[in-house]
Design goal:
This protein is an alpha/beta fold. The protein is built from 18 helices and 18 strands. The chain has helices at residues 2-23, 54-61, 76-85, 89-92, 108-114, 164-179, 203-210, 229-233, 238-241, 252-258, 279-287, 290-310, 316-351, 383-386, 413-420, 435-438, 508-524, 530-533; strands at residues 29-35, 64-66, 69-70, 118-124, 136-140, 150-153, 156-159, 186-191, 267-269, 272-274, 358-364, 390-393, 402-404, 408-409, 449-454, 466-471, 474-479, 485-490. A 10-stranded mixed beta sheet has the order 7-6-5-4-8-1-11-12-2-13, sandwiched between helices. Strands 15-16-17-18 form a 4-stranded antiparallel beta sheet, covered by helices on one side. Strands 3-14 form a two-stranded parallel ribbon.
């Protein structure tokens, strides 16, 4: 009799289990995780010399890591517009941080929403206050704040007390746990502000990372002899352009007491000359409440005492090294919080039986210089800013521990997600689905080169306009607008991109071949001719 009841119970469970499975939507969930300015060098799955990121690494360990992933335009808002539309900047209108996004463009969240997916966006969008195609959102206005940030929602603005990386994760987990319809698939964009400048870690990470010393890149003191005008005139040198208050956390009163003055740094945005002040320090610090300031002050006191004791006797080489360490301590401290919080979300998926049917993507809106060539920031087509981290996990579809060196871009994300969800891809999208690479069908991947175009000049950091073609072996670049210069880099033999070989006769055939391919690529992507013809060289 006991056997009969046990068998009956199994049959009942099986029947209802099967009926539920048949009525449920089995399309995969998509969790898109993106940080802002997260260099691939600062993920230990790529390079473990600076920081350990075990939670982000877990995505690579259980999925695929792309070592040649890149962006089409290395700057924040344009990168996000490319991701949302699957179209290059000159098509979607968002060519720089100032130009408006073409709001008539269809974004991939709209297509998911229309197809019955639940859609949500939490964190940093960077442009627009009403994201299209999302059922629920809480987004930071503009760049947002690290401390006690303000958020925009459908119900209105709100300020949430705490540290931004933790808060964005709290909001994300709350939606997953309490607000989503568990019978429908979801497409969520979980978007971190960190590690964008000015780098303010949580008080705990601030204290922890201040005690660390980090290895310097071999090109920290690059003199740019092997490259052209653009590298020599860019305003992103750690010694010359990184500010003591804004970046290194030196209090205004400390600088005043020492009689030192920040170098006058200015940039041009159109016709407007902008001179950054001390707000990079005072803005975040003044947002903190009394309890938060008391925690920050413990580390700020140490930094400022060290500065007062040592700065007057430093030469330029020592100042560069000091600024580099302060930069790494704060930048990497913010990333450590991102990694902790990614772990919280991955653990939630595990506990709630969501891991198996959820595609998890980790990426950044572009790369970043961590002292390579003496720089911080991004913008250039050179690898540290052109390349971006890309790690994807999809259990039972992606073989764990896979790596790929294929030339993939953020331009490809929208089409990849649509194909994964078995949705129709609009004909005007310009990327290529990564599905063959995700599923190990490398023979079906045919792209050999990608296209890049940067526009924001003259403006902050003064990186000249340029476009180029990049394959696994070479990188051909044209700098234009107020110069007319070409650069070619041998990516295999010169991985640090120190020597422009465009005029080297040994590379004559390479130049001719890539020049023709670049012309064809600009036609393929319908790049605007007037962008480099109406602006006289």
């Amino acid at each position: 009799m006991k056997y009969f009841y046990s068998l009956l119970l199994i049959l009942i469970i099986s029947f209802f289990g099967c009926s539920i499975e048949k009525s449920s939507d089995t399309r995969p969930n998509i969790l898109f995780i993106m940080s802002d300015d997260h260099a691939y060098q600062a993920i230990s799955a790529y390079d473990n010399r600076l920081i350990q990121t075990p939670n982000i690494d877990r995505i690579a360990k259980e999925g695929i890591l792309f070592s040649n992933a890149s962006v089409t335009n290395s700057i924040c808002a344009p990168s996000r517009a490319v991701i949302l539309t699957g179209k290059h900047s000159h098509i979607n209108g968002k060519i720089d941080n100032g130009k408006p996004f073409d709001t008539t463009q269809v974004t991939f969240p709209q297509l998911f929403q229309k197809a019955g997916y639940q859609t949500a966006m939490f964190g940093k969008l960077h442009f627009g206050n009403n994201p299209k195609g999302v059922d629920d959102f809480l987004i930071l206005p503009g760049q947002g704040s690290y401390i006690n940030p303000k958020f925009i929602s459908k119900e209105g603005d709100t300020i949430i007390t705490g540290y931004v990386t933790d808060i964005i994760t709290d909001i994300t987990l709350n939606w997953l746990d309490k607000k989503r319809d568990k019978e429908k698939p979801f497409m969520m964009m979980y978007l971190h502000k960190a590690p964008h400048r000015p780098w303010w870690p949580s008080p705990e990470k601030f204290a922890e990372f201040y005690e660390k010393t980090f290895p310097e890149p071999e090109t920290l003191f690059d003199d740019y002899k092997g490259r052209g005008t653009a590298s020599k005139t860019a305003e992103m040198n750690i010694l010359t352009h990184m500010q003591y208050m804004h970046d290194s956390k030196i209090r205004p009163e400390t600088l005043k007491e020492m009689g030192s003055v920040e170098p006058e740094i200015k940039y041009i945005r159109g016709e407007e000359v902008v001179r950054p002040g001390p707000n990079g320090f005072l803005g975040p610090y003044n947002r903190a409440n009394k309890e938060q300031r008391s925690k920050y002050n413990v580390t700020l006191d140490k930094i400022n005492l060290d500065f007062k004791n040592n700065w007057p006797n430093m030469n330029d080489t020592q100042k560069m090294k000091w600024k580099f360490q302060r930069y790494m301590q704060d930048y990497l401290g913010t990333i450590s919080s991102v990694d902790d919080n990614v772990g919280r979300v991955l653990d939630y998926l595990d506990r709630n039986d969501l891991t198996k049917n959820t595609i998890v993507v980790y990426t950044s809106d572009q790369g970043f210089y961590l002292g390579e060539h003496g720089w911080f920031d991004k913008r250039f087509i050179y690898d540290e800013s052109f390349k971006t981290p890309l790690l994807v996990r999809w259990p039972n579809e992606i073989k764990p521990g896979t790596t790929s060196d294929e030339m993939v871009q953020n331009l490809d994300f929208a089409q990849t997600f649509l194909e994964a969800a078995m949705l129709e891809v609009p004909d005007d999208m310009q990327g290529e689905s990564l599905m063959p690479l995700l599923k190990g069908n490398t023979k079906d991947w045919t792209r050999e080169a990608v296209y890049y175009h940067y526009y924001e000049y003259p403006s902050v950091h003064m990186v000249k306009r340029h476009y180029g073609i990049i394959n696994k072996e070479f990188k051909l670049v044209h700098f234009y607008y107020d110069v007319n210069e070409w650069e070619l880099y041998d990516r295999k033999n010169d991985p640090n991109e120190m020597n422009n070989v465009y005029s080297n006769p040994d590379y004559k055939e390479v130049v001719e071949k890539l020049t023709q391919e670049l012309k064809e690529m600009r036609i393929k992507y319908k790049d605007s001719k007037e962008l480099d013809e109406s602006f006289i060289y």
